[in-house]
């Protein structure tokens, strides 16, 4: 197996990848962006890619939501959850009052804004492709005095040229980021009873109740949604698709029926995968939405049509 991940080494994304059985001993190739990681999989130079998709503080990672919902199809085969803690690092000798620019990923900055405003109000935020990239950029000759970065502690631990100025600087101590392992389309992972299904559903026509029609496909079959976000398709202003996580597996009768209903309503619906939930939480399913209930109803209808 050849894995790729949002790099460089030392990112939270690599930490998520290392939780996958066998990944620690496999070939791991860092990518500079989500799009690059997914393109490696599409082109066959990597078997799977680990990328961030959702954060408990900031919500969906838009770069990932957009990249997996367009272009050649990909499949989510696994998810991992990683608790997120941040440190502020700089070159040795830098003091907090010296910091003038802070480099980090946008989601990391969003989770440390409060601490930064209170402790380094003079510092300007500079976006980086990842937290590790922001930290490693401090080692570049072009780095200025007063430059600092927000990253994972592991990065500072592996780079003696960097010094931790402040630890545990996140505004939310319970922050968690969800990562997905993405591969080319193949057979579905087996259902476990604690699964998740992800789809991207374009709004086929903008009219009152259009979103309700999409949601009704799930609600009428007793399928709970754990995430729904709207994203622009890029075709023209006001044209959106919905990125949705639903509880259950495509092999569950209630989920399969909902997917069929979605496709009838929006034929461009993209199935992005059914896979084990990282938290192993099983959904509560009412008796009339179980596989047994669906089988019984089909048998009843078959008896009517065959009479």
What is the secondary structure topology, with strand pairs?
Elements: E1 2-6, H1 12-17, E2 27-31, H2 34-43, E3 48-55, E4 59-60, H3 62-69, E5 75-83, E6 87-90, E7 101-104, H4 106-119, E8 124-127, H5 131-136, E9 147-151, H6 153-158, E10 163-167, E11 176-183, E12 195-202, H7 210-219, E13 225-232, E14 240-247, H8 253-265, E15 270-276, H9 291-306
Parallel strand pairs: 1-2, 1-3, 7-8, 7-9
Antiparallel strand pairs: 3-4, 3-11, 5-11, 6-9, 6-10, 12-14, 12-15, 13-14
Walkthrough of the structure:
There is one protein chain. The chain has 307 residues and is α/β, with parallel strands linked by helices. It folds into three domains: 95 residues, Periplasmic binding protein-like II (D-Maltodextrin-Binding Protein, domain 2, 3-Layer(aba) Sandwich), CATH 3.40.190.10; 81 residues, Periplasmic binding protein-like II (D-Maltodextrin-Binding Protein, domain 2, 3-Layer(aba) Sandwich); 120 residues, 2-Layer Sandwich (Alpha-Beta Plaits), CATH 3.30.70. Helices cover 29% and strands 29% of the residues. It has nine helices and 15 strands. Strands 1, 2, 3, 4, 5 and 11 form a six-stranded mixed beta sheet that branches. It has a five-stranded mixed beta sheet with strand order 8-7-9-6-10.
Which key phrases capture this entry?
six-stranded mixed sheet; elongated; 15 strands; alpha/beta; Alpha-Beta Plaits; D-Maltodextrin-Binding Protein, domain 2; 307 residues; 9 helices; five-stranded mixed sheet
The total of beta strands comes to 15
Can you tell me the number of structural domains?
Answer: 3
Structural class: alpha/beta
Helix content: 25-40%
Estimate the strand proportion: 25-35%
CATH architecture label of the largest domain: 2-Layer Sandwich
Give, in order, the helices and strands: EHEHEEHEEEHEHEHEEEHEEHEH
Please mark out the parts with pLDDT under 50 across 5 or more consecutive residues, or reply none.
none
Regarding CATH, which class of the largest domain? Alpha Beta
Rg, rounded, reads 22 Å
Fourth-tier CATH superfamily name of the largest domain: ACT domain
User: What is the count of helical runs?
Assistant: 9
Shape: elongated
Can you summarize the main beta sheet?
6 strands, mixed
Mean residue pLDDT = 91
Report how far the terminal alpha carbons are from each other: 54 Å
